Amino acid sequence: MKRRVLLFxxxxxxxxxxxxxxxxxxxxxxxxxxxxxxxxxxDVFLDWIVTGGEPTAGxxxxxxxxxxxxxxxxxxxxxxxxxVDWTVTIKRDQTPxxxxxxxxxxxxxxxxxxxxxxxxTTQGSDATSGIDACNAPTYRxxxxxxxxxxxxxxxxxxxxxxxxxxLSYDATPPNPGGATIRTGDKVVRLSWPGGSKAxxxxxxxxxxxxxxxxxxxxxxxxADRHVRNRRKYRYVLTLTDQAGNSASRELVAKPDRHLxxxxxxxxxxxxxxxxxxxxRSARYYNVQLFRSGRKVMSMWPRLAWLQLKRKWRxxxxxxxxxxxxxxxxxxxxxxxxAENRYGxxxxxxxxxxxxx
Length: 356
Prior knowledge:
Helices cover 4% and strands 53% of the residues. Strand 30 (324-334) and strand 31 (341-342) form a beta hairpin. The strands form nine sheets. Strands 23, 25, 26, 30, 31 and 32 form a six-stranded mixed sheet that branches. Strands 2-7-6-4 form a four-stranded mixed sheet, with no helix packed on it. By secondary structure, it is mainly beta. It has four domains: 23-92, no CATH class; 98-169, no CATH class; 176-253, Immunoglobulin-like; 259-353, Immunoglobulin-like (Sandwich).
């Protein structure tokens, strides 16, 4: 019985004495005071922290000042009875990627020009961390021969590079709204804004044709002299810019001789400048002025204009341009003036003088 009790006490005593656990050395590290995970884009300071033991190999605090896809750093620590071995990989990339090109997803619309939005595929390379993504820029305007898109690439470290690539873009057709048409004696004169190639078609055409191309070229005007007076002509003007955009406009004219200025039933405060369309065969003109139904002037200018004066003489009498309504007529003279031969009247108009 005593022997059993003694054995029990020995067992209890053994159970009540705690075993001594052995603590291994601990190793920790930081990069610039924080985690060493991921990519760094500037110099990295690696700091080793050893507790519960002493470094036996590695464990050297160091600066990583060069680009590297993975610099392996290690630390071995020991407390004399046990040791730990740790490694950490430092990745540093301070160099931005290279943008090597930007390829359009389609060819230009016309002779190197784009006339509709176009998207580019950006190409790039990076020697250390590699390309993470490149953009796909789209150009939609404004119109210019010196347009550009900005291609951008980002590497896996977060560095970015942008590069501009040129293109020519014009999505706007030329505007023929500024075209003008004027008629004269057996002539139609057309003009339009410059900067585009023009094509002019007339209906009816020349030589009995139903229509004809009268002009093609980079000019800004055209005088059609193959017309008959008092006959209607229809012109289609098409302007095409260097990007291939086109726009058309229709203009109608009926050539004839007529008075130009002053306008119909104009009201004036002084002597007017009378102007009319030149007549091809005219060597001079006869201008007649009437006031209250009575002729008060007859002149024979050689050119298609006459500047009235405040005072003049006619049939030996003195006249003055006083406030009244006036009517004027013009006839083209043929041959010598002494022959007294005149063609069809150019026109007649009236104007009112309110003060001189």
